[in-house]
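Request: Could I get any protein with tokenized structure?
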Amino acid sequence: MAQTKFADNYREVVFALWYEGGKNIGNNLIEAIPEENGDKPAISTIIKWRDMYGWLERAELLDVEVSRNITDEIVSKRIEMYEKH
């Protein structure tokens, strides 16, 4: 893991995998991350990215959006049920 510079779009891929993986940083995340130029970031690098680039705040906003979508889906199903009856 000698490389220290990763592309911004690669960092975004790592963010997406981190979020989709339950916001955990560990071996499962490292295994899921593709290599860039034959290298992967160290766990310490990912923690630095999380803190430097506001990943926790971004994840919170995504969680709110997910919650809204789930609520909309529940409401739609409930309306559909009432319309059938």
